[in-house]
Write a structure and sequence with these properties.
Distance between the termini: 45 Å
Largest sheet: 5 strands, parallel
Number of domains: 3
Number of helices: 21
Structural class: alpha/beta
CATH superfamily of the largest domain: P-loop containing nucleotide triphosphate hydrolases
CATH architecture of the largest domain: 3-Layer(aba) Sandwich
Number of strands: 11
Strand order of the largest sheet: 2-5-8-1-9
Radius of gyration: 27 Å
Length: about 450
């Protein structure tokens, strides 16, 4: 059962439990997101008439950096097997100014959807594709034998099987082979320049399209490449043969429009605060350009026209200087659901260190284990690390859970540097060890600000 079917059977409580594997705390935010995702599943079961009336309830997450805003959105997109992109509101400019136009976020989402669907179709036929790639690689590695065309010759078969074993083991990855490499740039979609005002009007895309137009898409030449690189080239070639591009685009467009998620970070940075200086006027212009995208409009892309009506938008920002009410009223109305994420406490930091499937302690243990060093953390040491992270966030800038990475890097700096000298050893990280490595820094506020 694939991810999409699995999500369709999950209730909001189960979605929250799935998020708990990676994200500590922020229960209110996870509940809100879970309900929003479940409502999209419920919407698919409505009659066509009712379905047209139900649109996603977009969300604004409010909270400082590093408390889990982006991670919640990213994990829910993976769980939903949905197209997902993260964009920063500050990267966009008002129409008429140099910079990215807001419609490019929809084109990026559609691009992500195409990649997602292509990869899915490949995985369904992975074993077949792998067999074809292996045979083609063997033809490249032993061309002399292949030219003789002695398929039934026992000696030829033995040589081929020996090479096959070496190929599967990776022993031939660095060996060079000569192959025909297509020079064309893969372009999927409808037309060269697109519709006026669409993606084709982006300056970067114009140059790309001109380059494609004046290059011979069928031109190819022989090159020497490594077996590893040849495998990648052949993979794309076999995927193109296997996958119906029209079906990919059709499925990708449906998934983009019905299940797509756009995460707009730093939306607080484009909130104007009532003044009329040029910067605030520009911010308001970006907001007004975003408004029709969020309300529901049609955006032309190289894959066709995308309707944004049912795309779920999740905006996020610290709102430490501005507040959500500083956004233009029309845009506020398009984000009816708001949730405030809480600052992380020492207990949250402790849980982040040990509980998630990708817990930080597990990562550092695995890294040093590659050098033959076994790390053991006492529970007291972990609580001590959590206390230091909380204190550093309080006394310096609050960067949320990212503070744990700065603390852990400094804590294990000397050990990581000399890991080769401790091969085969078991190193216990105790509270005293933490104090010996971080004590002076924690006591010195200036050092805490610049080091931790």
């Amino acid at each position: 059962m694939d991810n999409q079917k699995r999500l369709d059977d999950m209730m909001p409580r189960e979605i929250v439990q799935a998020l708990d594997e990676y994200i500590i705390g922020q229960e209110e935010a996870k509940k809100l997101i879970a309900v929003a995702i479940r409502n999209r599943v419920r919407r698919k079961r409505l009659s066509d008439e009712m379905k047209a009336e139900v649109t996603p309830k977009n969300i604004i997450m409010i909270g400082p950096t590093g408390v889990g805003k982006t991670e919640i959105a990213r994990r829910i997109a993976r769980l939903a097997n949905a197209p997902f992109i993260k964009v920063e509101a500050t990267k966009y400019t008002e129409v008429g100014y140099v910079g990215r136009d807001v419609e490019s976020m929809v084109r990026d989402l559609m691009g992500a959807s195409v990649s997602l669907v292509r990869e899915e179709m490949f995985r369904k036929n992975e074993s077949l594709v792998d067999e074809r790639i292996e045979e083609r690689l063997l033809d490249l590695i032993i061309p002399a034998i292949n030219e003789e065309k002695k398929e039934n010759d026992v000696q030829v078969i033995d040589v081929r099987n020996s090479m096959r074993n070496l190929l599967r083991s990776g022993a031939l990855d660095d060996r060079e082979v000569e192959m025909v490499v297509p020079q064309s740039v893969k372009v999927s979609g409808v037309g060269v320049f697109g519709a006026p005002g669409a993606e084709g009007m982006d300056i970067g895309n114009i140059f790309e399209d001109i380059n494609n137009m004046f290059s011979n898409s069928n031109r190819a030449k022989k090159k020497k490449v490594s077996v590893k690189r040849a495998r990648e080239i052949l993979r794309e070639d076999e995927l193109d043969k296997l996958v119906d591009n029209d079906k990919v685009i059709e499925e990708a467009r449906t998934r983009c429009e019905e299940m797509g998620i756009i995460f707009i970070d730093e939306i607080d940075k484009i909130a104007s605060k009532g003044s009329t200086n040029n910067a605030d006027v520009s911010r308001e212009g970006v907001q007004r350009d975003i408004l029709p995208i969020v309300e529901g409009t049609k955006v032309s892309t190289k894959w066709g026209v995308i309707d944004t009506t049912n795309i779920l938008f999740i905006a996020a920002g610290a709102f430490s200087i501005s507040k959500p009410s500083d956004l233009i009223p029309e845009l506020q109305g398009r984000f009816p659901l708001r949730v405030e994420l809480k600052d992380l406490t020492s207990e949250d930091f402790y849980r982040i260190l040990v509980e998630p499937s990708n817990a930080i302690v597990k990562q550092y243990k695995a890294l040093l284990e590659t050098e033959g060093v076994t790390l053991d953390f006492t529970d007291e040491a972990l609580h001590h690390i959590a206390d230091i992270a909380e204190k550093a966030n309080t006394s310096a800038d609050n960067i949320g859970a990212r503070r744990l990475h700065t603390v852990m890097e400094k804590l294990l700096e000397n050990l990581s540097f000399s890991a080769d000298e401790k091969k085969g050893e078991r190193v216990e990280i105790t509270a005293d060890y933490v104090d010996s490595e971080l004590g002076d820094i924690v006591e010195n506020q200036d050092l805490t600000r610049y080091i931790l």
